[in-house]
Amino acid sequence: MLRKMFVMSAAVAALAFVAGCSEGSDPMFNEVAQVTVFSSVGYSVAVGQTLQLEGRAVTWGGVRVDERISSWTSTTPSIATVSNTGLVTGIAVGSTGIIARAQGVNSPDRLINVAATVGGAQ
Q1: Could you read off the pLDDT of 20-46 as tens digits, one per residue?
Q2: What does DSSP say about strands 50-52 and 105-106: parallel, antiparallel, or unpaired?
């Protein structure tokens, strides 16, 4: 009888835990889990030209929260800079990584190639 009560108590505790992990009550559910950087037109830009990147942030619950992207960084700003809206400007020929950040989560580096402009300007 004591064993049956213990098993039932454990089952009730497990159900209470699972029920408590819903979207509304579990703060982890709403935290950003992953950030990605993408472009619909490619990942190359010419010196002096711009390329608009987009950031995608997704919570542990699978909800897109792109508005939580708080910063953008270029790993080599001498090659390309990036604005706080994801607009990349080519500075010199080469490659750099662009990173978006949301709630302390960084995207993987998105490699951007910067090419010479028509006429060979660098």
Answers
A1: 444 455 777 899 999 999 999 999 999
A2: unpaired
**Rounded to the nearest 10 degrees, how much is the dihedral formed by the CA atoms of 78, 111, 90, 53?**
-130
| Residue 92 tokens, joined | 């010199």
In the chain, where do the E strands start and end?
32-38, 44-46, 50-52, 54-59, 69-74, 80-82, 87-90, 94-102, 105-106, 110-115
Q: pTM, whole model, 2 decimals? A: 0.74
pLDDT at 120: 56
Q: What average pLDDT does the segment 46-72 reach? A: 97
Pairwise CA distance, residues 66 & 59, whole Å: 10
- Backbone phi and psi for residue 62, each to the nearest 5 degrees, phi listed first: 85, 15
Rounded to the nearest 10°, the torsion over CA 113, 118, 121, 122 is 0
Task: Compute the distance between CA of residue 101 and CA of residue 107 in angstroms, rounded to an integer.
Answer: 6
Compute the radius of gyration of the chain from its Cα atoms.
23
Q: What residues pair up with 117 in beta bridges, in sequence order?
A: none
Joined tokens for residue 88: 């990349």
